[in-house]
Amino acid sequence: MNKKIKIFLSLLAIFLFMAALSLTAQAKGYTNLYPASDNASLKKLITAEPLAMRDDEDAVGITALYSVDKDALKKLEESYYVTFGALVARESDGYDLSTLKLTYDKKQGNLQVPEHAVMLTVYSTDGKQPLDGKFLTEERNAFSVTLDIEMKTVERASDGAVHLAFILLEEKNDSDDAPELFYVGRKGTSYGAVPSFEGMVQAEYNQNKGDGAAVDAYIDFLQTQIKTDVSVLQNTPVMICKDGEMASTLEKGERAIWVEYVPEKDPYASSRDPMKRCVRAAYIYYPMDFDPALEEPSELKSLGVRRVFAYIAVPYANQAPGLVCVHGGGGHAYAEYALEAAMHGYAAIAIDTEGYHNTTGGSIPYNASAHASDSLGHCEKDSFANAEKSLSEQWLYHAVMDTVIANTVLRSMSEVDENAVGITGISWGGLITSTALCYDHRYAFAVPVYISFHMAESYGISVGGLPEKPFAAALWQDEALFKQCPVPTLIISCENDLFASVDTVSKSANDLPNGTLLIKPRLEHGQQQGASLPEIYHFGYSVLGKANGFIKAKTEPIGNNYTLALDIPEGAENVKATLYCLDRPLFSYSDRKHVVFEEVELTVNEDFTVNVEIPEGTRLYFIAFSYYDEQVDARQTGTPYLGSDKYERGYVYSSTDLISLNS
After folding, report:
1. CA 114 to chain centre
2. Are 614 and 606 spatial neighbours (Cβ–Cβ below 8 Å)?
3. Among 152, 274, 438, 508, who pairs with 452 as Cys (CB 3.0-4.6 Å)?
4. 272-307: per-residue pLDDT in tens?
5. How far apart are CA 123 and CA 128, in angstroms?
6. Which residues contact 362 (CB under 8 A, 6 or more apart)?
7. Distance, CA of 550 to CA of 654 (rounded, Å)
8. Short-list 203, 191, 255, CA closest to 60
């Protein structure tokens, strides 16, 4: 057994031991029967035992155990129909021993459960109440109920539990007296009083930062939690707020992702353009077991609820492809981003990853500050500052989870082909997109723009200062996970990007089993420029088999003078090739924007070959290809982000990798 596994197992054992001691110690004394009764048999019927800790593959939780006196039950049944079981609720839902109560509906003849509470009925004389629980043994002398802490799911907030055993007595003599309810009550301990396993592993890491095994153990632990949380969100149902019929399909206590459309914030509500009107503003709430639109934001905040603001665009089409759109650093959700994707034929979600929301409604001009901080939004933003803390404190964790939630939402829509949902992101959004691909493999395609992996090695203005944060780089840019990603991915950058040196995106594309690099010449770094690239949308269609592909070199560029054979998509018009070369190593200068690659037009022969002659003194070069596609041109009609005049409309670019010469 290696050292890392030993650390993990020893921490787990300590955690369970401490949790059990803490919970048991705080449980004593909560065995009072109320309302008070003089009935001796009733007082003996159910006794609350000490609380215990449950930890298995599903969840961590508090289990309440109750003992049943069979002699007392037999005595009571001489005069009463007896029903009993357990009632449990979270303190965060506003319950304590005085407020958690059942009611008996005489007309319906059954027990009514309060909101957000769970009832387990284990015994009912003559079956007068439906049973949804059972005794622990054949002797029928004990039963239990567990309230999950859910430390292994998305929300890990501290909480407390209230456990009640209830006893319902109905007289057998056809009396008109109302049935009586009695309780054996006990408050559970606060989960916050128990050291979390995550906190203990974190403490172990903090004490042993110089120990490679301890560092690896903590990273493995965090990544395991991320994978678990992603799995939960992938399989969580999606509900529409204020749709009672849809909400009725939820099982009791089942959590859902809730979408609340907010028409007063719709960006193009007054437009006559049907495509613009399909862009709607929405709040997407993290998994919860009730409709969040029915609660005040202040109440949701006290419950630890989080939400994401987004623009959702669903074109008038059946089984449309979908696209998750992730904005760049310093930005927010842009209505134009969703519209751009919709104009290209995609159902889209442009999510906000920095905890902002639309405050005004109406069309949001590019770079306008019409967004305010969301009280239910994320912690931090654009930062790896908290990478060594718990996941709930890490901005990138929440940003990645946003993409998983958005993917699940799109896939749930009847108008969307669930097998044709892709993801794209700009700058920081490209990094988020690339990281999301390590954990969510449901995407049909992906297009990170400007930034991907290997940012700790970048000679640009490294995002988040990753070179100085090796732990963050190891956690969030794990090459081993990235190399296992099967999703067809196009990474788009340019030769002079100031934020991610072009070699980092080249390495990223080569890491992926289905990775392709596009160095788009002279591409500027920005929100608008990163969303307007027709290659994003064309790549998705090509992967889905609905469009031509890209020009590719069929032979390897070798030497300084050679002939390159090209693979040309069917129907391609006006095929072009351009050589971009540099007379120095890429990173021999500090201000890259003042150093440009020399541009040399190449002739594309009738047989679609290109004769390449590399200028003397060249140290680095790449070759860019382009062709005109009528469908691409048509999709760009009316889009809000047409890009700059440097690119002709309707042209699709591709390129070779960056090539280094030793001379």
Report:
1. 31
2. no
3. 508
4. 999 999 999 999 998 788 899 988 888 788 777 889
5. 9
6. 267, 269, 370
7. 6
8. 191
